[in-house]
Design a protein that fits this description.
- This protein is of the alpha/beta class.
- The protein has ten helices and eleven strands.
- The strands form two sheets. The protein has a nine-stranded parallel sheet. It has a two-stranded antiparallel sheet with strand order 9-10.
- Helix 3 links the parallel strand 4 and strand 5.
- Helix 2 runs parallel beside helix 3.
């Protein structure tokens, strides 16, 4: 398991080229780079980031998902061709950054006329997965309430054609979808690549991880599904705008210390008692 930070945590505060050197200064071991615009999909921008990332390794990339991901599943050849052009650019950027995972949302369920066709979706996902593999990047589907993987069962359907498909468990999105996060986790199993963690109060209000009612101890106790020797990122999200940089730095240091506990029992006790818990976080508005 690896602990790191998403550049989305500094969305509207620091651009990616400024966030990565800041993470390196703080001693953050790894990060997810949230590419936020078409200009940031260019390999030349990735070269800038690579030059400025310092000692912070890039675990994964994430894009502003409605800009081309849904179009990868379109039926019009020109639309698909353009979308694949942007995908290749992002994959080349991931390659430059050394990122081995691509956090992916795919189809956006925005139209009332949307109809599910899982045999076709799975076949198209396999094409996308294969192209990612050519660049040494693993396609990783995230559970997102308004996107394709919006409920348990969808990931299983996509795996029929793509058994090595990676999974990204998002606790907040599971909560929004109305399904238990454990169902998504069980379905992703050994395919899990990244976890996005958040917290909520008993009244349903977003709060700092550890200040709500989410059982982080149980999540860590289930980490055996991650697979031995696998490099995993656990990404927590803060849903507060004020003072984010200071909280981020302190939380990252404390959380890495917690994860280095000597036993599972000790780690569980510390994690459930820590009052301002955050491993990695981003702004809720980045989704």
């Amino acid at each position: 398991m690896k602990v790191g930070i998403s550049t989305a945590s500094l969305f509207l505060r620091r651009n990616n080229e400024d966030a990565l050197p800041l993470f390196s200064e703080w001693g953050v071991p790894c990060a997810e780079v949230f590419l936020t615009s078409f200009c940031e999909y260019a390999p030349s921008f990735a070269e800038l980031l690579a030059a400025r990332r310092g000692n912070t390794a890039v675990h994964s990339v994430h894009v502003l998902n409605t800009q081309y991901e849904p179009q990868l599943y379109a039926e019009h050849p020109r639309v698909v061709s353009d979308a694949y052009g942007w995908l290749r650019s992002v994959l080349r950027s991931a390659q430059i950054l050394g990122a081995k995972h691509y956090t992916f949302h795919g189809i956006a369920r925005l139209k009332r006329t949307f109809r599910e066709n899982f045999p076709r979706f799975a076949a198209e996902t396999k094409k996308i997965f294969d192209l990612c593999a050519e660049y040494g990047v693993r396609l990783c589907y995230e559970n997102v309430e308004w996107a394709l993987c919006n409920r348990p069962g969808v990931f299983r359907e996509l795996k029929r054609e793509c058994p090595d498909l990676g999974g990204v468990l998002d606790i907040k999105q599971a909560r929004i979808s109305g399904y238990d996060w454990r169902e998504y986790l069980a379905e992703m199993g050994e395919n899990l690549a990244t976890v996005h963690v958040s917290d909520v109060t008993a009244e349903g209000k977003m709060c700092l991880p550890g200040r709500g009612v989410f059982d982080f101890g149980e999540l860590f106790a289930r980490r055996g599904v991650f697979g031995r020797g696998a490099h995993r990122e656990l990404r927590a999200r803060l849903f507060r705008r004020g003072g984010a940089e200071g909280v981020l730095r302190v939380s990252c240091r404390k959380d890495r210390k917690l994860l280095r506990g000597k036993s599972r029992k000790t780690r569980r006790k510390k994690l459930t008692s820590f009052s301002a818990f955050a491993i990695i976080f981003g702004q809720s508005g980045c989704k």
